[in-house]
Amino acid sequence: MTMEVRATMHALSPISTNLHERIKNDVKVEDEIYARLSWRNLTVVVNGNQSVLHDISGFAEPGRLLAIMGPSGSGKSTLLEGLAGRLSNQAQCHGEILLNGRKEQLSYGTAAYVSQDDVLLGTLTVYETLYYSAKLRLPDNMTRSETELIVKKTIEDVGLQDSMSTPIGNWHQRGLSGGEKRRVSIAIELLTRPRLLFLDEPTSGLDSASAYHVVQALQNLARDGRTVICSIHQPSSEVFELFDDLCLLSGGKQVFYGPIFGAQEFFASAGVPCPALRNPSDHYLRTINSDFDRVTENLKSWSKRFDVEDGCLHNPMARKSTAEQVRILVHLFATSEEKRVIDNTILSMSKMEGKVLPTRGSQASFISGHYGVAAFSIGNTLSSLPFLLLISLASTTIVYLMVDLHSGMERFAYFVLALFASLMVVESLMMAVASLVPNFLLGIVTGASIQVLLSFLTPFLSYT
């Protein structure tokens, strides 16, 4: 094991080290537990010809918090999903993505992905939510005391120890705030101690104070030796300063990549320095966002009308359109010293003989390792049985009495079971269609078409 890896391991908390050793003994995990992610010339094409990302390069290292930032539609979420291996079937990803210098597929146990939406049960407390998730995801041979210790330590990692017994909350029950719910979602993914963490706009919909606490928790996680990558839309100046590195996108192109402090020097050298007392992130987004073109034109007209002298408006770079500014910035970055450093770093990372955390088996990313296909199918079927039986009983009772069919409990029960079996067939058919057809509306049309075809085989239509 290299000295750098040893330093990373020493930075881990005791519970993190113990959990990794426990999983190592259970699933034969290799020595190195760090995660260095690099990507080079990454291009994403949708529907065969529409380029969403074009020639994106960068890297993410342990102990550092990387922000992917850009205006709406710039490709932030697409880049994050591409790095996490969560792109849809309609998207084609070209380029090179390396984990510890190897082409490895990210799966359950190696990386975790936190989406924008908090999918939580409002009636459970914070501790109950994490404990139930831990029982489903951690090794089976862990004792109850070990599981409880991991859950409590994870709650402390995200700063929710004072809300451990507080319900999550829903529309009729008061519970956690939006920022606290987001931290619970992050804590759920941290139970398996992943070394690589992806987050899709973790501060979306939060106030400035909640957003600061969420990003501060992510910064602490990064300092614990993890590699944390998150997309973010428009952070405040306090939140922006918590990040270590910045990847700035505009229209699917890379405008800047490097340390946060290097962004100001880059924009200043390009002729668009950040004014004093202005949020740097706001300035960067304003510079590369075409939505501000109309605002700039209005400012120019008002300055001419009232003879207002504004150094920013008289800046030659500021008088250019956003598209021209972005084109210049992209070209400057492609030929800059920062780009050369990135290429050299990616090249050196690709030559490292690092090893990736093996997992207990590749699981679908959308279930996050909670359960497999068989468990979902059985659980979904069992949960729907009472409702289908109730529908069968209610419908049969009304029809049976209205039509005045044969009396007798045996015949009535046979009629109920026949309808119940038909509903079960339709339920299973819809599950099969949903698993095969990715589009929601197309799935409804496909399922309805199959039912129409099956109806022609019924005895009623066959003999009329």
From TrEMBL:
Keywords: ATP-binding, Membrane, Nucleotide-binding, Transmembrane, Transmembrane helix, Transport
Main location: membrane
Sequence similarity: Belongs to the ABC transporter superfamily. ABCG family. Eye pigment precursor importer (TC 3.A.1.204) subfamily.
Protein known as: ABC transporter domain-containing protein
InterPro entries per UniProt: AAA+_ATPase, ABC2_TM, ABC_transporter-like_ATP-bd, ABC_transporter-like_CS, ABCG_dom, P-loop_NTPase, Plant_ABCG
Location relative to the cell: Membrane
Lineage, opening ranks: Eukaryota, Viridiplantae, Streptophyta, Embryophyta, Marchantiophyta
GO molecular function: ATP binding
Alphabetical list of PANTHER family matching this protein: ABC TRANSPORTER G FAMILY MEMBER 11
PROSITE patterns xref list: ABC_TRANSPORTER_1, ABC_TRANSPORTER_2
Membrane-crossing segments per the record: 385-403, 412-434, 440-461
Residue ranges annotated for the ABC transporter domain, each copy included: 37-276
Membrane-related topology note: Multi-pass membrane protein
